[in-house]
Records
---
Amino acid sequence: MKILVTAKRVEDPESKIKVKPDGTGIVQEGLKYKINPFDEIAVEEGLRLVAKHGGEVVVVSIGGKEVHEQLRHALAMGAHKAVWVNHTGPLDQMGVAGLLQKVVEKEKPDLVILGKQSIDDDQNQVGQYLAEWLGWGQATFASKAESFDSENEKNKVPALVVGADNKTVRVVREVDGGLATVECQLPAVVTTDLRLNQPRYASLPGIMKAKSKPIEELIPAGLGVDVTPKLTVTKMSAPPARKAGIKVPDVATLVEKLKTEAKVI
Amino acid sequence: MDFQLTDEQRALQETARKYAREVIRPKAAYYDETAQFPLDLIEKGFELGLLNLAVPAEYGGLGLSHLDGVIATEELAWGCAGVATSMIANDLALLPILIGGTDEQKRRFVTPFTKELKFASFGLTEPGAGSDVAGMSTTLRREGDHYVLNGQKQFITNGEHASQYTVFATTDRSKRHKGITCVVIEGRPKGMTVGKHENKMGQRASNTVTLTFEDVRVPVENRIGEEGEGFRIAMETLDNSRPLTAIVATGIARAAMEHAIDYAKQRQQFGRPIAEFQGIQFMLADMGMQIQAARLLTYQSAWMLDQGQKNTLVSSYAKSFAADMAMKVTTDAVQVFGGYGYMKEYPVEKLMRDAKLIQIYEGTSQVQRIVIARELLR
Ligand SMILES: Cc1cc2nc3c(=O)[nH]c(=O)nc-3n(C[C@H](O)[C@H](O)[C@H](O)COP(=O)(O)OP(=O)(O)OC[C@H]3O[C@@H](n4cnc5c(N)ncnc54)[C@H](O)[C@@H]3O)c2cc1C
C-alpha cells in the first residue's frame, strides 16, 4: 500500500520561544527547527504499516528550501520518497489542506497520515479539511492506551490496523476519558496523537541512504491552488510571566491565604 | 573556507545528540558508580550506526569523513565520556589494519565489525613502556608460518570484552622503534590471559585491563605491514585518532559548561543568582571561548585528514589543547557549583574525573608537546 505522511518544519520544542516586542510574530534568530513531533509519529506509523503490508511511504512538506531538512529526516527514518511543495510566505490551514489535496490526487495514496496538529500554531484542522475535501473517511487522534514499555501494551494490537482485504483501517482514537475504536474505508485520512508510537531514530546508515532518495518539487501555482490566506494572525503575545512564590511562616497562615487569596478552600 | 556543517552532518549530529540525551545520559551515573560495562547502551548505539565510524564504505562501513566522526563523537562524550571511549575504541583498534593491512586483511579483520556488534582492542602500552613506546618489551619470535608472542600489555581499553586485538610487539628489541611489528590476535588463543577490570578514577564505564601473552601463536598472515613497520603504523593510527580524543574532551567540557550555566542562573547568594556576579561570569566566558577554540582546532585536525594532509602537528595541538581545556573547564564547573559541585549527587565532579584521563591516554599532554616541539623545530 501507498501511504502519504506529512513532515512540517516547526520550531524545536526545546528552544526558547520569544514573541517579538511588536507582537507580529516570534523571534526567529537563533531558533532551531525540527519535524513536527506529531508528524514524526505519522512517519513512524506509516513505516510500520508498510513493513507489515509492503508498499511505500511518501513524505510531503510545504515550505522553502529549508524544509528539505525535515524531508531528509523522514527519508533517513525510512520513507521512500519525498514531495516538496515549494512555497514561502504565509499559509493558513485551508491553504495547506488545499495543497495536500492536490498532492494526494497526484500521488493517489491508500492512506494519508498526518499529525493531529503542529506544535507551532496548534490549529488541529488540516487533517479534517483534507478528508472533507477529498470526500474520504477520517479518524483523528490515533493513539495507544498505556505506557509504551508496559507488558500489557506490548501485547496489544497496534492502534492502526489495516484490514486483511486492504480495504479498511481500524483506528483506536483518544477521546475524552477513554478510547474509541472506529473503522474507516480506505482511502482514508488518519491524524496521530502523542501516544500512538515512539518514533525511531534516523540511524547513520539511514541518513547516508537518504542522500540518494528523490525529492520531487511542486509549486502551488503548478498545482492550481490559490493559497491566499483567509486567516491572518493579527497579534501574538507571551503568556503573563509567572510570579515568584512566597514562603509562609506557619500552617495557619497557609490555610488563611488559601481561603482568602487563592480562594481554593 | 567554510564553517557550515552539511545537511548530513547536522543530521548525524542530531541523531548522536538524541542518542546521548535519551540513551546514554539517563544511565551515565549508574555506570560511573558501578564501573560495569555499558553493553545495553552500546548495543543501541551500534544499531544506530554510531560505532566503527572510521570504516570506509568498501569495507562495510558508512564511509564517513573524519570530520563526520568527530561531530558525532562530541555528542557521545557529552552524554558520557566513559561510554564514548568504549565506543570509539574499535576505531583505534581497526585503524592500524586500515592503515597498514592488505585488502584481504581488511575484509577479514574489519568488515565483520560492521555486521554485528563486536569489540576490538588496541594494545600498545606496556607496564614498562608508556610514553616511551619504542621501549616496549613484548616480543614476537618467528617460527615457520607463525610468530610466538610473549609479554604484557597495560591499560587496554575494552580488553575484557574484545574478540580481536591489534597488538604491537618487537621482533628485535635492540632496534628500538625499528623492531616494532603489528599483529592481529583473534579471539583468546592459548597462552593469552585477560586481567581484572581496573578500578579507575573516571571514565569508569570504559573497560580497562591488562593482557598477558605466554607463547601465544600468531599466524604470519595476521601480521599487519612488514616486520619493523609497526611503529609507523601506530603513529599514523594516533594521528587519526587524536581528533577523536580531542573531541571527547570538548564534549565533556561542553556538558560541564551547560551544567554550570544552569546552576549559576538558579543558585541564589547575596539575594541574587550567582550568574550576576562578574567572578562567575568570567569563568563561564572562559569556558565558552576555550570550548569553541578546542572544537575548531579539532575540526581542523580532522578536516586535514579528509584532505589527505598530514595532521601530526595540528592534531597534537588539538589533543593537548582540548585535554588541558577540559580539565580547566570541568574544574571551574565544580567551582561554580561550590560545595555541591564536590558532591556525587551533582553531575560535575564526574566530568572533572572523566576529563583527567584525556591528559593521559593516547599520548600524555607532555608527549603531545614533545611532538609539537619536534614539528616546530624541524
Ligand atoms: C584508562 C586508560 C585507558 C587506556 N587505554 C589504552 C589502550 O586502549 N591501549 C593502549 O595501548 N594504551 C592505553 N592506555 C595507556 C596510555 O596511553 C598510557 O597510560 C599513556 O601513554 C602514558 O603512559 P604511562 O601511563 O606509562 O605513563 P609514563 O609514560 O610513565 O608517564 C609518566 C609521566 O611522565 C611524563 N613523561 C614521560 N616521558 C616524558 C618525557 N620524555 N618528557 C616529559 N615528560 C614525560 C608523562 O607525561 C607522565 O606525566 C590507557 C590508559 C588509561 C589510563
---
Amino acid sequence: MLCEKCNKKSATVHLTQIVNNKKTEMHLCEECANKSSFISHTKSFGFEPEFSFQSFLSDLIGSDYVFSDKSAASCPKCGTSQRDIAKGNLLGCAKCYDTFKEQLLPVIKRIHGTTQHVGKVPEERTAGKTKLVKKLRDLKSLLKDAVSKEEFERAAKIRDEIKALEKKLGVV
Amino acid sequence: MGIKEIVNSTKIYWLTSDGPERDVVVSSRVRIARNLADIPFPGVMSDADAESIFHAVKLAVAKRNDIEFTWLRELSDAEREILMEKHLISPDLLENHEKKAVMLSEDETISIMLNEEDHLRIQSLLPGLQLERAWNLVNELDDLLEETLGYAFCEQLGYLTSCPTNVGTGLRASAMLHLPALNIINQINSIMSTVSKLRLAVRGLYGEGSEAKGNLYQVSNQITLGHTEEEILKNLNSVIKQIIDKERKARKALYEEQRYYLEDRVFRAYGTLKYARLLTSNESMNLISDVKLGANLKIIDVDPNVLNELMIITRPSYLTKYAGKKLDSHKRDILRAELVRSKLKNLN
Ligand SMILES: [Zn+2]
Ligand SMILES: [Zn+2]
C-alpha cells in the first residue's frame, strides 16, 4: 500500500480515529506521518489495540457499495441510512445487517474472506445442548459419589435425572 | 474490594506477575465483542438504553461477587487514564464517557467495557503467553452473561457488531512482545510483513507504525469470521512461538558476537536510569528496554518484573496521579527520574 499523501513511499503508519461515531483511517509513510497533524490529536494513538487492520471502512464500502432501490433507504429500527453506511459510519443496530445485507456482504467477504460464521453459538440456539451435556457429566460424577458413599436413595434420584437428560439429548 | 481500590492499586496484575515465556511475552489479551439484540448499538443509542444495558449486565453477572462496576463518569480523569494505561479499558472508552461503564474483577484478570463501540467488550489480560487461559476466562463469563442476555446473533454472520471488521466470533486476541534483539538486527520489518501475510497484524506499542517505544510490539488476529475461536487462537499462538524463538536466537547471537557492544549498552542504560536527574518518557522507555534485555541475558541482575512495572509507572498519567496534581513536562521528567532512581535503589 502506498502512502496516501505523497503516493511515493510505502505506507508503514496506519492511523485510526473515531470522531462522532465515524471511523477515519489514514495510511502514511513514516515521513508524511511525522508531518501530519493527525497524530498530535489522535490521543489514543499507540494504545488502541486493533486499528492497523481495521481497514478504513468507507474505503472498503465505497468501492463495493451500490445504492440499491431494492433495499430500504434506511433501517426501520435505528434510522441509519444507506448514505450513512456508504460514508463508512458504524452500523446502528443488529437490524442494519438485515436491512443492508446486499451492500454489506461483499464488504464482509473482502474483510474476512468469507461470509459464514463457524465459531461459538449462543446456548439457546443449540437448544441448550452443550449445557445439558455438561450437566450430564456433572450428574454422572455425583452418581459415582453417591454410590461410593452407599447413599442409594440419592443415587436412584440422580439416576432418574440422568435418564431424563439422556432422553432429552437423544442419547438413548 | 471496591472499584476505586482496584483502580488505584499500584499492583498491576498482568505486568508484575510471572507467566509463561515471560522473557519475551509481556502479556496476553483476549477480548470478545457482544451486543444486545433489541437495543441500538452504542453509537446511536439513547441515555436510557445505556442505563438499561448497565443494569441488565449487572444483573447477569450478579453471581460473580468478585466483579465490581462503575460508570466512567464516577471516576476522576486521573483514574480513567490509569485504567487506560493499565490496559484495562481502551482509549476509546475515555472519549464521550457519559454512557460508558466498566466492570473489573478484583484480581484484574477480567474486565467488561460497556457501551464503547459495542455494548459489551469482555476482556482478559494475563501475564506472559496465556492466550488459551485468557480465552477460557472470557468464554466462561460470556456463558454466564448469555444465560440472561439476548445477544445480537445470526446463523450466517455470527455475533453482530457495530463494525463489520469484528463480526463473527467478535474475537480479538493479542500478545505484547518485547523484541529488542530483533530490532537491533533490523529484523522487525521483515517479520511484520511475513506475519501480515498470515492475516495477523503486528504493530508497535506506544509508538507509530513500525517504530515502537521500548521495543514493545503487539501481534493480533485480523480476521474474526470463518474460523472457530480455537483455530484463531492456535494460529496466533504458533506464530508468536516462532517470533519468540527468533528473538531468543537473536539475543543469543548478539551476545556471542557482540558481547562488549551489548554489555556496554546495557550498563550505560542502567547507569543512566540509576543516576539521571531528568528522564523523558521516550528515553526512559528505551533505557528500560535495554536493561530488560540485559536482565534476560543475565548480563545484569535486575528483577524483570520491576522493569515491567517501571514501564507503566513512568507514563505521564501515573506521574500525575503520583504527584496528585497536573505537572508540566519538565516537572514530570524530574519526578520520573526520581521514581526510577528510588525503584532501582530498593533493588540492591
Ligand atoms: Zn508519504
Ligand atoms: Zn439499524
---
Amino acid sequence: MPKTMLEKIWDAHVVRSEPGRPDLLYIDLHLIHEVTSPQAFDGLRLSGRRVRRPDLTVATMDHNVPTTDRSLPVADPISKRQMEALERNCAEFGITLFHLRDPRQGIVHVIGPELGLTQPGMTIVCGDSHTSTHGAFGALAFGIGTSEVEHVLATQCLWQSRPKTMEIRVDGTLGYGVTAKDVILAIIGRIGTDGATGYVIEYTGEVIRALSMEGRMTVCNMSIEAGARAGLIAPDEKTFAYVKGRPYAPQGADWEAALAEWRTLSTDPGARFDAQVTLDGSEIAPHVTWGTSPGMVVPITGCVPSPEEFTSEADRRAAERALEYMGLMPHTPMQSIKLDRVFIGSCTNGRIEDLRAAAEVARGRKVHPDVHAIVVPGSTQVRRQAEQEGLDRIFKEAGFEWREAGCSMCLGMNPDILRPGERCASTSNRNFEGRQGRGGRTHLVSPPMAAAAAIAGHLVDVRDWK
Amino acid sequence: MQPFVRETGVVAPLDRVNVDTDQIIPKQFLKRIERTGFGPFLFFDWRYLSDGQTPDPNFELNAPEYRGATILVTGRNFGCGSSREHAPWALMDYGFRVIIAPSFADIFYNNCFKNGLLPVVLPEDTVRALIEKARAQPGYRLTVDLEAQTVCDGEAVQISFEIDPFRKHCLLHGLDDIGLTLQQEADIAAYEARRPPWKRGVMQNVP
Ligand code: SF4
C-alpha cells in the first residue's frame, strides 16, 4: 500500500496501538520555553516523577524576554520570575537550556532548525502552536498544551489519534515580490481558519519545491492558522544541505545512515490524501490582512470587504466586529491604510532570509516620519549573521530600530506592545484582537511588504518598487 | 484530574465565531506560574473597559442573568490560536464545566480533556437555537450528561452528541494519563531499544 509521509512518520513512532484507543507515539524531540512549562514541572514534582529523557529535551527563553539591552536586568518582575523558574527547572531535571545570554538563544522555532535539532522524520512537540514550523523538514511537529508537556517530560510519549491528511498543492511559479508568507496567507484566505482542523497538511507542488528552507518554514509555521496542527513538506536535497554540519545534526557514519532513512520519507506515488486543495502560484499577489483573524485577508491590490459580501450570518457579524475593531470602512483600498508601527520578526518571518528581503527594500531609503519600525531577529545567531552581512546598518540608517532576539511584538508579552488604536504592519502570524497590545490593530504582511510599508507610511504593493 | 460525569447549570451565550485563546486569556496573564487563579482574567479585554476594572456592560457574560453560568454556548472554531492551556484553566476557574460549539480548534479541544472541561460539538443550527434560547430566557438551564452523551433542558430539548470513547472513559473517571502511560513501560523501553543509534539526544552530541 502506498503511504503518505504522515503515515510513514506515524507508523515509525507507534509505541503501542490498540483498537478503540489513540496510538501511543514516541517523541524524538521536546522543545520547551518559559511560558507553558512551569506548571508542567510543578506537576512532576508533585507526583515525584522525573524527566524520562532530558537528552531529548531542549529549553530556551523567548516569549517574554526583553529585546533591548541584555546586559541590564529584566525589568518586569513577573517575566523575570518565569525565566528564573525555567532556569531552576532545567537545572533540577538536567535539561539543556539556551539561556537569555547564550549565543544560541532565540525563538524556539528558529533555533531548533538552526542548531540542527530539527531533522526529517522526527516527531517534535513543544508547548506552542507554531511548532508546526518544523514540519518544513519533513518532521511531524505539533503544538501541545501544558498537561501534554508534563506527559512528554514524564514518558517521552503522547497518546494521539491519527489525523486526516490534506494535500495542498501550489503549482506554477511565484511572481516578483511574492513570498512564502503570501502563499500561506492566500491558502488561509482560501480554506479559512478552520479549513484544516483535524488534518495534517502536506504542502506540495512546484512553488513549494522552489522555496528555500526559510520559506518552507514560513509556510508550515502558519498551518495552525488554517486549523491544522501540523504541516509537512517532503525533505529533499535542499533540506539535507540545510541540516548538514549543524551542531546537533548527525555526523560521519550517522549522517549517512540518517540520510538513507530520510530519503524514504516522501509520500509514495499513488498514496491517498483525505482532502486536496490546489492553488496556482502565479496568481498569488502579495497578501495583507484587513481584519482580526488571519483568514480575513485580501491581495494588496484589493479593498476592505463589506460585511454583506459574506454568506453566513456568523461571518457577517464577525466582519462587522472586525471592521469596528480595526477602525476601517468597507471598500477602503488596502494601499490607502496609514500605519503607526511596523514589526519585522517572529517565528514566521524572523530568519536571515526574511531580514535580507526586508533590508533589500529598506536599503538607501528612510522610514516614514510617522512610523515607528522595529526589526527583531528570530534568534541571537540570526542577529549575528545579519550584522556580519551589514543588514543592521541598512536598517539603522533607514531609521528602523535593531533589537535583540525574541518573540517581542508578535505577542507583546515583553514591553514591545502597541498602544490602543495604533496600527501596525507586522510579519508575525496572528492579527487577533489585542494580540500586539490591547486595542492594537495588526495587518499581517511579508517582510518586504512590511519594509515598504514602513517607508511609505501606509500599506503598499512592493511590486511597484521593482 | 477532576472527573466529569454530569453538569446541570445556567447557559451563557457567547455569540461569536473564531474566539481565539488570546481573547480567552490575554498574554499579560500568562506569566503566572500556577495553574489556578486565571478566572478573574477570563475574556479580560472584552469583559472590562480600558481601565481594566469596570465591567463592560455590553459584554454578554457581564449580564447579571448569566452570573454563575457553568455552560458556555458559542460559535465555531472556538479556542483557535495559541496552545496555551491557560485558556481551559481560566474557563474552569471562572466556573464553566461545559463548552458547546459547532467546532473547536484541535489543541484547545485536547487541552479541555486534560482538565475536566467538557467540549461538546453540536450542529451549527442546534447551537444557534441554544444561543437564542439562552438569550430569550435568562436563567435557561441545561443538563449535560457525559455517560449518556446527551444535552437536555428537561422539556423540548434532548440532543445527543458524539465523543471519542477513550476520551469519554478518561474524563468520566478523571484518569491521570501519565499514570496510564507509565504502565506501558515495557513497550516504551522496547521502542527506545529499537530507535536508530543516530537519533542521539542533545547530551551525547554537544558541540
Ligand atoms: S514569535 Fe510569536 S508565534 Fe512565534 S513562538 Fe513567539 S510568540 Fe509564538
